[in-house]
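Protein modeling request. Please complete all fields; requests missing the sequence field cannot be processed.
Requester role: graduate student
Desired output: 3D structure, token encoding
Chains: 1
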Amino acid sequence: MTRSLKKGPYVDERLIKKIKDKKPGDRTPIKTWSRAAVISPEMVGFTFAVHNGKDFIPVFVNEEMVGYRLGEFSLTRKFTRHGGKMQKELEMAAKQKELDAAKAEKASSEAKK
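Delivered output (113 residues):
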């Protein structure tokens, strides 16, 4: 559900205050816990360190991000991989195939000399 148009987008006042003190293009991250804050045009060119619940993820704001929320660029869940016995076997087969190809290439290059 969107926010009312008469209220306008939610932008944390403390973030705006921190931006006023710095110049655009400054790469030092601005720490924030405000994941719900909407990215405004004044924020373009700054790096924000957005908290994801565990650590701070650096987010460099560019023009395409205006209108989105800061939390959308700082993921809270970490995808490791789909796994299991079958996946492990597939990965081992791919690794073995890669090693065999490298050995064959090495042998052919030595044979040419």
